[in-house]
Every structure is written in C-alpha cells, then in structure tokens.
C-alpha cells in the first residue's frame, strides 16, 4: 500500500490516536505502547507539547511515530523535523499530501466520500483515513466505497472503541483501525503507564481475535 510505513501500520492493525498535554509523559506513553505490544503512535498536534512528545517518541527508535491533526504544509515540516514518519490529516489537502511526498513521509489523509477518495487518489495516495468513521456510515459505508475503489485501503477512525474494532477489521479493504480509546487521556494525564499498557494490550487482543 504505497509507502512502507503504511504497510507497517497495516501489519499492526491499530493506530492509537494520542492527545498529550504534558510532553514529559511521552516516555511512560512510549513504554506503555511498547509494553502493550503496539509500538505505534499518532500524536495529534492539538496541544502545545505535541511536537516535543513526537521528538521524544521518535528518538527511542522502537516506535512508529506519526503526527495527527495536520492541517497545513508548515505543520508537515515541523512534524517531520521532530521525527514524524507519517502524517495524518482529518481531511484531504493536495498541498499537505504533496509536502509529505517531498519530505519522504507517508500521508494518511481523511476521506469519507467518493469525491474525497478520488481527490486522494489524484494526489497519489491509496490509503485513506475514513474519518469520522462512526458518523460517516460506519462499516457499511466503507464496504460500499470499497466496491468502486479496488486497491484503496481504509483506516477508519473516530467513534470506534473496543466493542466495534473487530467489526471494522473484518472488512478486507480496512488495513488498520485508529482511535483514542487505546490511550485514555485520563491515564496519560495521571501518568498511569500501567493503565496505558493494559488498555493497549486489550486493544491488541481485540484486534487479533
Ligand atoms: C482523530 O483525530 O482521529 C480522532 O479524534 C479520534 O477519534 P476518537 O477519539 O473518536 O477515537
């Protein structure tokens, strides 16, 4: 599926979406992810400490680190400079995708309509984030979109939890599922690395059923 990093994400089947308020929690976050069996992180650029957290996680070398909520070309540059290996956006921007390709990182743009999937294809992308998944038709919508777009992989994210992750992963066109339920914001805020490890391990077990 295009960039090797996307194949890696597909291999892990899960993309934890992270909102980190205090970048000094990045180490226990990384330990919880690796310890739970999911060495993957999508750190959203929604908090001032996000880029520092990306830098800390990327420097470990044992995690696949991406930036999420990337809306501008400038944010692509800052995330890649910090060490992000893939760039996730809520929607599809040709400019953002072009910069990702210039910088040699994978782009994972959001698309939930046929027009948006076509725009992503035109921009050179064959894996899209189906976001927000639960309010955009869920599994039925992905199956319907996959019919005309053979060769496109979907990463549904948004409103997905432990109870419905398997339902999405059962769709052949779904390469991985994303979501924030795997790394509870409260656990991160409390510095509860053990709780993060537990939730991550539970998600991995739900995804491999
Ligand atoms: C995202 O940016 O991908 C979403 O905020 C994640 O959605 P969720 O919190 O519903 O899992």
Automatic annotation (TrEMBL):
Signal sequence range: none
Pathway(s) where this gene product acts: Carbohydrate acid metabolism; 2-dehydro-3-deoxy-D-gluconate degradation; D-glyceraldehyde 3-phosphate and pyruvate from 2-dehydro-3-deoxy-D-gluconate: step 2/2
EC number: 4.1.2.14
InterPro entries linked to this entry: Aldlse_KDPG_KHG, Aldolase_TIM, KDPG/KHG_AS_1, KDPG/KHG_AS_2
Keywords attached to this entry: Carbohydrate metabolism, Lyase, Schiff base
Catalytic function, reaction form: 2-dehydro-3-deoxy-6-phospho-D-gluconate = D-glyceraldehyde 3-phosphate + pyruvate
Single GO molecular function: (R,S)-4-hydroxy-2-oxoglutarate aldolase activity
Pfam family, one: Aldolase
Top EC class of this enzyme: lyase
CDD domains membership: KDPG_aldolase
PANTHER family in the record: 2-DEHYDRO-3-DEOXY-6-PHOSPHOGALACTONATE ALDOLASE-RELATED, 2-KETO-3-DEOXY-6-PHOSPHOGLUCONATE ALDOLASE
Family: Belongs to the KHG/KDPG aldolase family.
Quaternary context: Homotrimer.
Protein name, per record: 2-dehydro-3-deoxy-phosphogluconate aldolase
Organism: Demequina muriae
Lineage of origin: Bacteria, Bacillati, Actinomycetota, Actinomycetes, Micrococcales
């Amino acid at each position: 599926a295009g960039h090797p990093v996307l194949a890696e994400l597909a291999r892990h089947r899960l993309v934890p979406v992270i909102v980190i308020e205090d970048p000094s929690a990045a180490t226990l976050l990384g330990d919880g992810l690796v310890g739970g069996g999911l060495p993957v992180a999508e750190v959203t650029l929604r908090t001032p400490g996000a880029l520092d957290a990306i830098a800390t996680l990327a420097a470990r070398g044992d995690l696949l680190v991406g930036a999420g909520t990337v809306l501008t070309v400038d944010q692509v540059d800052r995330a890649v400079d910090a060490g992000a290996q893939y760039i996730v956006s809520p929607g599809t921007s040709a400019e953002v995708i072009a910069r990702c390709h210039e910088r040699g990182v994978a782009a994972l743009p959001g698309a939930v309509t046929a027009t948006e999937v076509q725009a992503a294809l035109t921009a050179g992308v064959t894996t899209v984030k189906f976001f927000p998944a639960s309010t955009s038709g869920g599994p039925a919508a992905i199956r319907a979109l996959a019919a005309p777009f053979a060769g496109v992989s979907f990463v549904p994210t948004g409103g997905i939890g432990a109870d419905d992750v398997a339902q999405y992963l059962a769709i052949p066109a779904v390469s991985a599922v994303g979501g924030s339920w795997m790394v509870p914001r409260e656990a991160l805020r409390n510095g509860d690395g053990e709780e993060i490890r537990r939730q991550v391990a539970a998600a991995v077990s739900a995804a491999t059923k």
